[in-house]
Amino acid sequence: MQGYKDIIQYAIDREIEAEMFYKEIESKVSKPILKEMFANFAKEENKHQQILRGVSDNKDAELNFKSTVDYGISETVVKPKISDEMTLADVFTIAMKNEERAMKMYNFLAADSSSESTKKLFEELASMEQGHKLKMENCYTEVAYAEVW
After folding, report:
1. Of 18, 71, 81, 119, which residue is 20 to 30 A from 129 by alpha carbon distance?
2. Dist. CA 65–CA 133, nearest whole Å
3. Minimal CA–CA distance to 41: which of 85, 82, 72?
4. 126: exposed, middle or buried (C-beta count within 10 Å: 0-12, 13-18, 19+)?
5. What is residue 79's predicted lDDT score, i.e. its pLDDT?
6. What is the pLDDT of residues 32-78, one digit of tens each?
7. How many Å apart are CA 73 and CA 133, to the nearest integer?
8. From residue 105, how far is each of 27, 81, 86, 102, 126 by CA, in Å?
9. pLDDT above 90 as % of the chain
10. pTM of the full structure
11. Cβ contacts of residue 114 below 8 Å, gap of 6+?
């Protein structure tokens, strides 16, 4: 990956993979609540693609994702197997683990970049994924630890 557009296309391709992953799970589960959750995750990934396409079409556009707090919740759980017996906590675990993986990948690519502009772009993409991870972690916490509320 060398150029700006190549990096953005790489990120778009990862978002497409994530969207397809969620659509595949949606097609395999039968519980309506699980179908709806995974359909919504797929829609979110599609929105991410649109954001990145907008940046790709306008090189002067900047990604300006706020760095969010990282509580590291996803790092404390194991990604469950996909099944119809999944709980909502399991659904959010899968989603937050996927966002964690994407965040770590972009952070690795940023650290490995020799160009400052490329490094900044990967850091912005990592911040975007970190924000998604935080959202999923918050959802996970609400359902996994409902007794706290």
Report:
1. 81
2. 13
3. 82
4. buried
5. 93
6. 988 898 899 899 889 888 888 887 776 655 666 677 788 889 999 99
7. 9
8. 27, 22, 27, 5, 8
9. 22
10. 0.79
11. none
